[in-house]
Amino acid sequence: MMPLDGIKVIDFTGALSGPYCSMLLGDMGAEIIKIERPKRGDDSRGWGPPYISENLSTYFASINRNKKSISLNIKDPEAREIVKKLAKNADVFLENFRPGTMEKLGLGYEDMKRINEKLVYCSISGFGQDGPYKFKPGYDLILQGMGGLMSETGEPNGGPVKIGIAVTDISAGMFACYGILSAIIARSKTGRGQFIDISMLDCQVSWQTYFATGYLFAGKIPSRVGSAHSFICPYQSFRTKDIFINVAVGNEDMWKKFCEVLGLDIAGHEKFSDNGKRLKNRDELVKIIEEVLVKKSGDEWLVLLDKAGIPSGPIYTIDRLLNDPQVIHRKMIEEVTNPLYGTIKIPGLPVKLSETSCSIKLSPPMLGEHSEEILEKLGYTKEQIKSLKQRGII
């Protein structure tokens, strides 16, 4: 048994935010029916190289496991009727088009609600379904800038820096999943579905947490501090003899132990005796620490710091991360096999449940791979399906 066994999701999403959400739901056992355009499909199928096969990029494969793909030309009335038939027995309807798009097609929340009042309908967009920016396109780069992340990321004297992974898309997908699960629980009490409005900008305001509250309370505007922490010191990357390492000294007891490991007699110094003083004198302190750390290799320091209980770690490139023994032990690399393109490796499942475990049942699909299967379950005959293909509807 899986936690979302019996839950059916109609997935109209593409790119990253929506597919990440539906992947999480699929990992938990929901049946995901991914609706894609004929011929091209989800835009991310073409985001490469590298490609696994024609019309299947590694980008797409990374976020589209546990889904069935049906290709539909939803500009055609017959295709929209297929969507409505799917919605009659669905639990969740997920889309990430620009606001107003689904309403113009007759597939908006109010349209679907008339078909199925228990339907949980979730829309993900850059700026939400209302407000002065509702029609602005939302891309991760734009949202990282407007969401404050880029003003807070980078070296003090450098320009704004984008975080490598598309975090604003992924955070929106995770918040959407959280909202959908909450609405499913609410439905079990009320018997009714509801509409969920997820804004990527809203998600970034939520992520600002202590920066936002610091500004709202004291007018403090955070600045770029490189790998350092705006509120804790020392808590950053340090240069050693050969590599950089991360060290996180989170409290005063750790500070004393850290000084002992480095052989520094400054734990009680008037400039460094508490966190506030260390923040004020950060530049001077970092210079003192690095003058010691550069005398040994990073691996030597990591052994000593770990033994003393000081949070520390290496700065991995992706190859080292994916070959780390802890990552392998936690089964965070999975193999999936599809008869159309063979066996590939993809990231594993981060949520481990003791009683109703998640799993990967379906490999990332080829475009339209499950069209016939899905239509047959809706009652379409082979002749009708053949006709739909010939007319370019699927």
TrEMBL record:
Matching Gene3D superfamilies: Crotonobetainyl-coa:carnitine coa-transferase, domain 1, formyl-coa transferase, domain 3
The keyword Lyase appears for this protein: no
UniProt entry keywords in alphabetical sequence: Transferase
Any Pfam family matching the protein: CoA_transf_3
GO molecular-function terms, A-Z: CoA-transferase activity
Protein name, per record: Putative CoA-transferase
Keyword Nucleotidyltransferase on entry: no
